[in-house]
Amino acid sequence: MVGTKLVDEIKLKIEAGAEAADPDDILQLFELMKQITEEVDYLKKDTIEEKMIGQVNLSDVDKSYWFKASEGLIEYGEGKIDDPLFLITTTKDIGLGLFLGEVDANIVSPLGKLKIGGNYKTLRAFQEFYEDSIEIIRCD
Length: 140
Hints:
This protein is an alpha+beta fold. It is built from 6 helices and 5 strands; from the N terminus they run αααββββααβα. It has one domain (4-138): SCP2 sterol-binding domain (Nonspecific Lipid-transfer Protein, Chain A, 2-Layer Sandwich), CATH 3.30.1050.10. The protein has helices spanning 4-16, 25-39, 41-49, 92-99, 105-108, 120-138; strands spanning 52-58, 63-70, 73-78, 86-90, 114-118.
């Protein structure tokens, strides 16, 4: 079951915005994705059908996070992961803005504020998976 305390904390972070967020808030967002996926069949199906293994680097604060969704399981953590399928490198405010839904990757990427590497199809699958997860709590 998705923890109501976690949902409430994420909603407050979304309201406060990326500038007020801590880089490690990404871990709470990943935990939310994990908990929601356990309850929502179409998200669980995504983790079975897709292999989403990614690295997020926040260059201005020297922080890195990884995320794996594969074979129906979700894992995540701080630090670097070997052989990610996609890589996101940006600043703290842009990165958290992406994850909190206030920044559009299609706008900041051409401006050079967001660097993407690896398999674009896998990155898009992760982006859709993430957006679907966050949309569920916004509809509550």
